[in-house]
Amino acid sequence: LGGLSGCQSPAPPTAASTTCSDAGGICVSLSDPANAPLAKTGGAMIVDASNDQILVVRLSDTEVVAMSAVCTHAGCIVDFDASAKVVSCPCHGSQFGEDGHVLRGPASAPLRTYGATLAGEMITIAA
Hints:
Low-confidence stretches: 1-8
Number of helices: 0
Radius of gyration: 14 Å
Order of helices and strands: EEEEEEEEEEE
Distance between the termini: 18 Å
Mean pLDDT: 89
Shape: globular
Largest sheet: 7 strands, antiparallel
Strand content: 35-45%
């Protein structure tokens, strides 16, 4: 994704993550100060996975969602607007719902979604 220099914008910060030993997914610890944005509702961070950049959004005290952070239109990195509850692409204005579906084009395909759970202080992403 290094060839996206024309799509510069402030993106969510990158989370500190590890490989989960039991499930083989990705674990993000909320006790790590680097992951502070995800400790509150509306927070969003990028998790680097081997095959994707994943946007993780804290929807409530008990719910998180995870989806590709790469816009399906032109490959730019999306951001989460907590006040509007939409995922927005800064390059051409595409907008996606909190479940990754297209709300407004030019993107026509939804963002890839990943299973994500929040248990205690740990977010687990099936990636």
